[in-house]
UniProtKB/TrEMBL annotation:
Residues 173-259 form the HTH araC/xylS-type domain. This is Helix-turn-helix transcriptional regulator. Keywords: DNA-binding, Transcription, Transcription regulation. InterPro entries: AraC_XylS_family_regulators, ExsA-like_N, Homeodomain-like_sf, HTH_AraC. GO terms for molecular function: DNA-binding transcription factor activity; sequence-specific DNA binding. The lineage of its organism: Bacteria, Pseudomonadati, Bacteroidota, Cytophagia, Cytophagales. The keyword Transcription applies. It comes from Dyadobacter luticola.
Length: 284
Protein backbone atom coordinates (compact mmCIF):
# COMPACT_ATOMS: atom_id res chain seq x y z
CA UNK A 1 0.00 0.00 0.00
CA UNK A 2 1.41 3.40 -0.94
CA UNK A 3 2.09 6.21 1.45
CA UNK A 4 -0.92 8.39 2.23
CA UNK A 5 -0.40 11.88 3.57
CA UNK A 6 -2.92 14.12 5.26
CA UNK A 7 -2.27 17.68 6.42
CA UNK A 8 -5.10 19.58 8.03
CA UNK A 9 -4.23 23.15 8.96
CA UNK A 10 -6.35 25.20 11.34
CA UNK A 11 -4.43 28.46 11.25
CA UNK A 12 -2.39 27.92 14.43
CA UNK A 13 -3.24 24.21 14.70
CA UNK A 14 -1.97 21.49 12.37
CA UNK A 15 -2.72 17.79 12.18
CA UNK A 16 -0.39 15.57 10.15
CA UNK A 17 -0.93 11.92 9.30
CA UNK A 18 0.78 9.65 6.77
CA UNK A 19 1.77 6.02 6.46
CA UNK A 20 4.44 3.60 5.32
CA UNK A 21 7.41 5.91 4.90
CA UNK A 22 10.13 7.59 6.93
CA UNK A 23 10.35 11.31 6.21
CA UNK A 24 13.37 13.48 6.85
CA UNK A 25 14.21 17.10 6.31
CA UNK A 26 15.07 20.31 8.08
CA UNK A 27 13.35 23.53 8.93
CA UNK A 28 13.60 26.84 10.74
CA UNK A 29 11.06 27.10 13.56
CA UNK A 30 9.91 30.76 13.73
CA UNK A 31 7.40 30.35 16.60
CA UNK A 32 7.09 28.25 19.75
CA UNK A 33 5.28 24.99 18.93
CA UNK A 34 3.47 22.66 21.33
CA UNK A 35 3.00 19.15 19.94
CA UNK A 36 1.48 15.82 20.87
CA UNK A 37 2.93 12.71 19.22
CA UNK A 38 -0.10 10.54 18.49
CA UNK A 39 1.70 7.67 16.75
CA UNK A 40 5.18 6.97 15.44
CA UNK A 41 8.19 8.88 16.71
CA UNK A 42 10.04 12.08 15.89
CA UNK A 43 13.82 12.50 16.03
CA UNK A 44 15.28 16.02 16.12
CA UNK A 45 18.92 16.93 15.53
CA UNK A 46 20.18 20.46 16.18
CA UNK A 47 23.68 19.84 14.84
CA UNK A 48 25.04 18.75 18.21
CA UNK A 49 22.49 16.48 19.90
CA UNK A 50 19.57 14.22 19.04
CA UNK A 51 16.21 14.45 20.76
CA UNK A 52 13.72 11.57 20.65
CA UNK A 53 9.97 12.01 21.08
CA UNK A 54 8.04 8.76 21.23
CA UNK A 55 4.39 7.98 20.73
CA UNK A 56 2.02 9.47 23.34
CA UNK A 57 4.40 12.26 24.37
CA UNK A 58 4.13 16.04 24.63
CA UNK A 59 6.88 18.42 23.58
CA UNK A 60 7.70 22.09 23.14
CA UNK A 61 9.88 23.26 20.27
CA UNK A 62 11.35 26.70 20.80
CA UNK A 63 11.16 29.56 18.34
CA UNK A 64 14.19 30.67 16.31
CA UNK A 65 15.47 27.10 16.14
CA UNK A 66 17.24 25.23 13.33
CA UNK A 67 16.25 21.57 13.32
CA UNK A 68 16.83 18.48 11.20
CA UNK A 69 14.16 15.83 11.68
CA UNK A 70 13.23 12.22 11.01
CA UNK A 71 9.57 11.23 11.22
CA UNK A 72 9.30 7.47 11.76
CA UNK A 73 5.94 5.65 11.50
CA UNK A 74 4.91 3.17 14.19
CA UNK A 75 4.98 -0.60 13.66
CA UNK A 76 1.49 -0.48 12.17
CA UNK A 77 2.79 1.99 9.58
CA UNK A 78 1.23 5.26 10.75
CA UNK A 79 2.78 8.55 11.78
CA UNK A 80 0.47 11.20 13.22
CA UNK A 81 1.01 14.37 15.18
CA UNK A 82 -0.92 17.46 16.24
CA UNK A 83 0.86 20.78 16.74
CA UNK A 84 -0.21 24.20 17.98
CA UNK A 85 1.80 27.25 16.93
CA UNK A 86 2.00 29.99 19.56
CA UNK A 87 2.63 33.21 17.64
CA UNK A 88 4.30 36.23 19.23
CA UNK A 89 1.26 38.48 18.80
CA UNK A 90 -1.00 36.13 20.78
CA UNK A 91 1.62 35.66 23.48
CA UNK A 92 2.10 39.42 23.82
CA UNK A 93 -1.65 39.94 24.18
CA UNK A 94 -1.87 37.27 26.88
CA UNK A 95 1.13 38.80 28.64
CA UNK A 96 -0.68 42.15 28.78
CA UNK A 97 -4.01 40.62 29.83
CA UNK A 98 -2.71 38.40 32.64
CA UNK A 99 0.52 40.14 33.60
CA UNK A 100 2.72 37.23 32.59
CA UNK A 101 6.38 38.23 32.39
CA UNK A 102 9.35 36.16 31.35
CA UNK A 103 13.04 36.45 32.00
CA UNK A 104 15.74 34.77 29.97
CA UNK A 105 15.47 31.02 30.45
CA UNK A 106 18.54 28.97 31.34
CA UNK A 107 17.26 26.07 29.25
CA UNK A 108 19.07 25.89 25.93
CA UNK A 109 17.57 22.78 24.30
CA UNK A 110 15.75 23.50 21.04
CA UNK A 111 13.00 21.07 22.06
CA UNK A 112 12.09 19.18 25.22
CA UNK A 113 9.45 16.92 26.73
CA UNK A 114 6.48 18.34 28.59
CA UNK A 115 5.22 16.10 31.39
CA UNK A 116 1.79 14.67 30.70
CA UNK A 117 -1.09 15.75 32.93
CA UNK A 118 -4.89 15.60 32.88
CA UNK A 119 -5.30 19.18 31.67
CA UNK A 120 -3.03 18.66 28.67
CA UNK A 121 -4.60 15.31 27.84
CA UNK A 122 -8.05 16.88 28.03
CA UNK A 123 -6.91 19.73 25.81
CA UNK A 124 -5.70 17.34 23.11
CA UNK A 125 -9.01 15.46 23.29
CA UNK A 126 -10.83 18.75 22.70
CA UNK A 127 -8.93 19.23 19.42
CA UNK A 128 -10.06 15.92 17.92
CA UNK A 129 -13.00 17.25 15.85
CA UNK A 130 -10.44 18.70 13.42
CA UNK A 131 -12.91 19.00 10.55
CA UNK A 132 -15.44 20.84 12.71
CA UNK A 133 -12.81 23.31 13.89
CA UNK A 134 -11.77 23.87 10.30
CA UNK A 135 -15.16 25.05 9.13
CA UNK A 136 -15.49 28.73 8.11
CA UNK A 137 -16.57 30.96 10.96
CA UNK A 138 -14.69 29.09 13.67
CA UNK A 139 -11.77 31.54 13.87
CA UNK A 140 -12.85 32.81 17.30
CA UNK A 141 -13.04 29.24 18.62
CA UNK A 142 -9.60 28.42 17.25
CA UNK A 143 -8.14 31.54 18.87
CA UNK A 144 -9.74 30.56 22.17
CA UNK A 145 -8.19 27.07 21.89
CA UNK A 146 -4.77 28.67 21.41
CA UNK A 147 -5.29 30.92 24.42
CA UNK A 148 -6.48 27.95 26.49
CA UNK A 149 -3.33 26.00 25.68
CA UNK A 150 -1.01 28.83 26.72
CA UNK A 151 -2.76 29.26 30.06
CA UNK A 152 -2.77 25.50 30.72
CA UNK A 153 0.95 25.29 29.94
CA UNK A 154 1.78 28.12 32.34
CA UNK A 155 -0.41 26.73 35.13
CA UNK A 156 0.98 23.20 34.86
CA UNK A 157 4.58 24.11 33.94
CA UNK A 158 5.41 27.53 35.45
CA UNK A 159 9.00 27.41 34.15
CA UNK A 160 7.60 27.86 30.63
CA UNK A 161 6.76 31.47 31.44
CA UNK A 162 10.42 32.39 30.99
CA UNK A 163 10.42 30.78 27.55
CA UNK A 164 7.03 31.72 26.13
CA UNK A 165 7.09 35.32 27.33
CA UNK A 166 10.68 36.15 26.46
CA UNK A 167 10.16 38.45 23.48
CA UNK A 168 13.79 39.44 22.94
CA UNK A 169 15.31 38.91 19.52
CA UNK A 170 18.55 36.95 19.09
CA UNK A 171 21.54 38.88 20.46
CA UNK A 172 24.94 39.19 18.86
CA UNK A 173 26.77 35.93 19.47
CA UNK A 174 30.09 34.26 18.63
CA UNK A 175 29.96 33.97 14.85
CA UNK A 176 32.72 31.38 14.46
CA UNK A 177 31.23 28.95 16.96
CA UNK A 178 27.71 29.37 15.55
CA UNK A 179 28.70 28.81 11.92
CA UNK A 180 30.90 25.81 12.68
CA UNK A 181 27.95 24.27 14.51
CA UNK A 182 25.24 25.16 11.97
CA UNK A 183 26.82 25.18 8.50
CA UNK A 184 24.94 21.97 7.64
CA UNK A 185 21.59 23.79 7.68
CA UNK A 186 20.42 24.91 4.24
CA UNK A 187 19.11 28.35 5.19
CA UNK A 188 19.67 31.78 3.68
CA UNK A 189 22.42 34.19 4.71
CA UNK A 190 19.64 36.49 5.93
CA UNK A 191 18.51 33.77 8.34
CA UNK A 192 22.05 33.11 9.56
CA UNK A 193 22.48 36.86 10.08
CA UNK A 194 19.26 37.11 12.11
CA UNK A 195 20.12 34.14 14.32
CA UNK A 196 23.54 35.62 15.13
CA UNK A 197 22.02 38.98 16.05
CA UNK A 198 23.29 40.89 13.03
CA UNK A 199 22.02 42.72 9.99
CA UNK A 200 22.95 41.05 6.70
CA UNK A 201 25.62 43.65 5.92
CA UNK A 202 27.18 43.36 9.39
CA UNK A 203 27.05 39.57 9.16
CA UNK A 204 28.94 39.60 5.86
CA UNK A 205 31.58 42.01 7.19
CA UNK A 206 32.05 40.06 10.43
CA UNK A 207 32.13 36.78 8.52
CA UNK A 208 34.94 37.90 6.22
CA UNK A 209 36.90 39.22 9.20
CA UNK A 210 36.44 35.94 11.07
CA UNK A 211 36.95 33.41 8.27
CA UNK A 212 38.81 35.46 5.64
CA UNK A 213 36.29 34.18 3.10
CA UNK A 214 33.03 35.01 1.39
CA UNK A 215 30.20 33.36 3.39
CA UNK A 216 28.64 31.60 0.38
CA UNK A 217 31.97 30.17 -0.75
CA UNK A 218 32.89 29.19 2.81
CA UNK A 219 29.58 27.39 3.29
CA UNK A 220 29.97 25.42 0.07
CA UNK A 221 33.57 24.49 0.90
CA UNK A 222 32.69 23.45 4.44
CA UNK A 223 29.78 21.31 3.25
CA UNK A 224 31.89 19.66 0.56
CA UNK A 225 34.63 18.83 3.04
CA UNK A 226 32.07 17.27 5.37
CA UNK A 227 30.57 15.31 2.47
CA UNK A 228 33.98 14.03 1.39
CA UNK A 229 34.69 12.83 4.93
CA UNK A 230 31.34 11.04 5.20
CA UNK A 231 31.69 9.36 1.80
CA UNK A 232 35.33 8.33 2.04
CA UNK A 233 35.74 7.64 5.76
CA UNK A 234 32.23 6.54 6.74
CA UNK A 235 31.15 4.81 3.53
CA UNK A 236 28.04 6.96 3.14
CA UNK A 237 26.29 7.30 -0.22
CA UNK A 238 25.56 10.62 -1.88
CA UNK A 239 21.81 10.10 -1.50
CA UNK A 240 22.36 10.00 2.27
CA UNK A 241 24.88 12.82 2.43
CA UNK A 242 23.71 15.77 0.38
CA UNK A 243 20.81 16.75 2.66
CA UNK A 244 22.80 16.08 5.82
CA UNK A 245 25.54 18.54 4.84
CA UNK A 246 23.22 21.31 3.65
CA UNK A 247 22.72 20.98 -0.11
CA UNK A 248 19.25 21.55 -1.52
CA UNK A 249 19.31 18.76 -4.09
CA UNK A 250 21.51 15.94 -5.37
CA UNK A 251 22.16 17.57 -8.73
CA UNK A 252 23.58 20.75 -7.20
CA UNK A 253 25.64 18.75 -4.76
CA UNK A 254 27.17 16.43 -7.36
CA UNK A 255 28.04 19.34 -9.67
CA UNK A 256 29.70 21.30 -6.86
CA UNK A 257 31.52 18.24 -5.58
CA UNK A 258 33.01 17.29 -8.94
CA UNK A 259 33.90 20.82 -10.07
CA UNK A 260 35.31 22.16 -6.84
CA UNK A 261 38.99 23.06 -7.02
CA UNK A 262 39.66 21.54 -3.61
CA UNK A 263 38.13 18.22 -4.70
CA UNK A 264 40.09 18.18 -7.95
CA UNK A 265 43.32 18.65 -6.03
CA UNK A 266 42.75 15.91 -3.48
CA UNK A 267 41.54 13.35 -5.98
CA UNK A 268 45.00 13.42 -7.54
CA UNK A 269 46.27 11.78 -4.36
CA UNK A 270 43.64 9.04 -4.38
CA UNK A 271 43.80 5.60 -5.86
CA UNK A 272 42.42 4.96 -9.34
CA UNK A 273 39.68 2.80 -7.86
CA UNK A 274 38.51 5.61 -5.58
CA UNK A 275 38.39 8.09 -8.48
CA UNK A 276 36.42 5.57 -10.52
CA UNK A 277 34.06 5.12 -7.59
CA UNK A 278 33.45 8.87 -7.43
CA UNK A 279 32.69 9.00 -11.15
CA UNK A 280 30.32 6.05 -10.77
CA UNK A 281 28.55 7.58 -7.76
CA UNK A 282 27.92 10.87 -9.53
CA UNK A 283 27.12 9.56 -13.01
CA UNK A 284 23.58 10.45 -14.05
Amino acid sequence: MGSQIEHRTLRQITYTCYSNSIREGEQFIPEHVFSYQISGKLIYNDGENEYLFDEDSFRLTRRNTLIKFNKVPSQDGEYSNVSVFMDQNTLRNISLEYGYRGTKSHRSEPAFHITSNELLSGYIESLKPYDELNKPGNEILKNLKLKELIIVLIQTNPFLMDILFDFTEPGKIDLEAFMNRNFRFNVSLERFAYLTGRSLSTFQLDFEKTFAANPRKWLQQKRLQEAYYLIKEKGAHTSEVYIDVGFQDLSHFSYAFKKNVWFSAITNTLSWNWKNDINRIFFF
